[in-house]
């Protein structure tokens, strides 16, 4: 199996490519016990998380990752991932800085799912 | 036992108060399997982490927390904590934005220790 750094990079690339092309397809990455905190809004489970992500008030979005760091999060193969970056929505010219963290857990079939997801915009 | 949100808030307050008053005392919060990623520098274990934190090139620092979010990180009482904020070092007038995440794990005696710690400055 690939090391945690490689898995983290592959996950982040896949996640934002999917987010920026078709947010509906992110459902494959969550499970019913997954948690999302998006700004101040907390959601539990694939359906509530997808409703939140697909309902965000923009049509197009482009994430640009600036930094990506990862650490093992437990002894069962979990991976903690932290991203900082910028995003552009719709016709907006000025990117917004954000930071996002994920805990990825093995799903038992050789893949990973998102157990924890916290997203925050950075102001100032 | 207090809920995870309360523990996260108490931890963050204690962590930065300790960091800003006497960084040496942070050693009580780490264990030999703790991981720190400080910007691009990765450290394992209490001694290496403390050497890094106490060796940072400033005399005084003041952290100001802007946002604090937490989620349970496993079924054994672990807590994932994400902080965004600003910090001022020495005579510098302009605060630097940062984001920091921790995974806290129960230490078996009713307290928690820092298993994962990732710190990044936010530019731009």
Automatic annotation (TrEMBL), chains A, B:
Matching Gene3D superfamilies: 3.10.450.50
Keyword DNA-binding: no
Record-linked InterPro entries: NTF2, NTF2-like_dom_sf, NTF2_dom, Nuclear_transport_factor_2_euk
Domain NTF2: 7-121
Compartment(s): Cytoplasm; Nucleus
Entries under PANTHER family matching the protein: NUCLEAR TRANSPORT FACTOR 2
Highest taxon in the source lineage: Eukaryota
Protein name (database record): Nuclear transport factor 2
Lineage: Eukaryota, Fungi, Dikarya, Ascomycota, Pezizomycotina
Organism for this UniProt entry: Stereocaulon virgatum
UniProt keyword terms in alphabetical order: Cytoplasm, Nucleus, Protein transport, Transport
Chain's role: Has a role in nuclear-cytoplasmic transport of proteins and mRNAs.
